[in-house]
Amino acid sequence: MKIGLHEPLFKGNEKKYLLDCIKTNWVSTSGKYLNLFEKKIKKITGSKYVVPVLNGTIGLHISLITLGVKNGDEVIVPSITFIASVNSINYVGARPIFMDVDKYLNLDEKKCIEFLQKQTFMKKNICHNKKTKKAIRAIVIVHTFGNAAKFDMLQNLCKKKNIKIIEDAAESLGTKYTSKKFKNKHTGTIGELGVISFNGNKIVTSGNGGAVLTQDKKLYKKCRYLVFQAKDNNVNFIHNEVGYNYSLSNISAALGTAQLEMLNSNLDKKNKINKFYSDSFLKVKGANILQSPEYSKNNKWLNLLVLDKPLSKKTRAIFNSKTIQFRPIWYPNHLQKKYLHCQKFKINYANKIFKKIICIPSGPNLRNSQLKKICNFLKKALND
Ligand SMILES: Cc1ncc(COP(=O)(O)O)c(C=O)c1O
User: Is the beta carbon of 359 within 6 A of some atom in ligand 1?
Assistant: First the structure.
């Protein structure tokens, strides 16, 4: 069987909880597993409030609406991220401004600060873009591949400029800061809102699923209200705002709850996988495993092999392998057809690095024999 990039591992209470939903008829947008799921996420992340949603993309969409980002506004986002971080900005009629990334493939904090200092002005306490004269209402900070992004200084500036922060923590469940200003904080709990994904390829899964985190009661209430169809009166069907049917189901929450019980064991396993790969490529010339930042304890969601040179046409054949699944990283979003017209600021590193990276299998179910096979396969492909 082909080794997948990131397959889920079901060895806990998944079946038991799913059958319980069917037996008790609690299969839709309320039920005890939704409550348990919410409680577990609160405990793991330390977040005061949690709203379970249908998936991470929807989590980002509803977060932008909750913060009042609307048609004609602008939102800052790094170019290297899964396209959902960018499309969600498009959904509300706003336009992305693309930023470069740092050596961990997270938003380049320094360049972003430079942009805000030199290219924006304040009018009526709203930050405006000098070039377009549009309001910059928010920034999406992505914790890419499970590595915590550095944004402690940027956060201060965003406060001054009244720019709201949404953390896209889709990939970073289990990742916490260990030093400085954000010490002991879980990714996704620092900005106004944070979003986690429970897609099948994440560290734990609810099938399709997501959660919005916030420490602000008002934002929590608004987000929950919008997610549940903006119901103002349950009996008479009064809806004073346009709401959405974005809540997670009890069935997905049942699967997610059982999976969250396995989070610590998956985190352990992922640390071991990362160590195996790092050691294995330690002495290989021209290739190394991307290391995580030292200011945080990272979940090691996906391992990336970084080459000194862009992948050759021959090496790219590994992406068609029938035995092991490899993938390049995302194509930079400022180069995507739908976003070519959008503003970008001094993007340099992203343009080069995306051609040099191979995403390698990292699921918690991988055995040592498979890890060896993957390393041998890669070493041979790079040598040929
Ligand atoms: C960085 C990032 N943001 C957002 C999403 C969207 O999450 P979902 O697939 O649950 O919609 C994903 C991944 O799936 C992601 O990797």
Answer: no
